[in-house]
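Please study the protein below:
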Amino acid sequence: MSLILPVGPYHPALHEPICIKLYTEGEYVVDVDLKLGHVHRGIEWLGERRTWIQVPYLAERICGICGDVHRVTYLSAVESLLGIDPPPRAKYIRTIMLELERIHSHLLIIAALFHAIGFDAWFMQIMAVREKVMDLCEMISGNRKQYAMSVIGGVRKDIPDEMKPKILRVIQEIRDYTKKVIIPVMEGDKTYQARTRDVSKIDYGTAYEYHLVGPTVRASGVYSDIRYDEPYEAYPEVDWEVIVHQDGDNWARMYVRALEVLVSCDIVEQCLEKMPGGDIIHPKAKPWLRVPPRVPEGEAVFRTEAPRGELIHYVLSTGGDKPARWRVRTPSYANFGGIKPLLVGTHVADVPISYTSIDPCLSCTNRVEIIDVKSGQARVVTSVDLIQLSRKVTKKMILYGKDYR
């Protein structure tokens, strides 16, 4: 008997609104229809009406977990247009913050998957360990999240020598907990293995064909990591390895993240040890802390490896103090393209676990689409449509006052 089972947009198994329409035969999923667009904040449109030094604060709020990498990616694109390069010490500090963010992001999704399986005790323990990383980020930047650490041409705060022992101590705690608790549970717990091994397998060819990114594609044997392929910041100066697994199932996707936590710990330690002295911001960029620059005409694209995978920021300048166009391609947007091969063939009960295994983020993914309920035809909303809609709303606000809804 065929049955259409909607999961979402509001569902106990989902942390953000998304509608996954499952076509089922008995207990098995035979087809999937994905509906995005329940959360659209117009961040790109807003950014094009902010100055070059205001946009980073919007960029950092694209995602509530991996905001720093958005900020750094945007700033790197702008820096390439300005023709400046952050000082070496600033690059090391940026790398440390990026890897701390990767650690707490990976720990969060590992904990979330344990929760999806029913291991709430492990969930609470991992989140308590993750909290120590958040404390480090707050100690360094002054903010628990949305660090506002990087600026055009460098960073706004240094990491003094007296901070290093505490950072190293916490990093060692994270490494020990990952090696002694998280990895042994993944490798030895029968319940965990039963719910993740050989479930939602994506082979090398499918992962490559669907252009999946990040730990999701590396868990299917594809050797792809922007930190290695196109090194940036301090990554060329430290020794580390790209974690790749061949199994391509739920277990492999989470196991890759656990091993990447250990790699990130190694990178942070090396950056602290090798960090050079000198300035933390380019001399030419110091006035831009308060006054936005006029960026030369041109366009730039910069790629980084966010915790979820390849992140792309595109900026276009017409010579003013604001970007003429700002475009963001997030890793979740790429990985959602593989939702059908991920879920088709699995048990309905495994859908929440399989969905969690790709570490989805809706707040950084959604685009607007208008669907005519009578004809069923869909139309993507363009930037011109958004501008016209904004003008209509502004006119109504002028007519009816600020309380207009």
In short: The first strand starts at residue 2 and ends at 7. The CA atoms of residues 136 and 166 lie 8 Å apart. The beta strands are 2-7, 19-25, 28-35, 150-151, 154-155, 298-306, 309-317, 325-329, 369-371, 378-380. Residues 43-338 form a domain with the Cytochrome-c3 Hydrogenase; chain B fold (CATH 1.10.645.10).
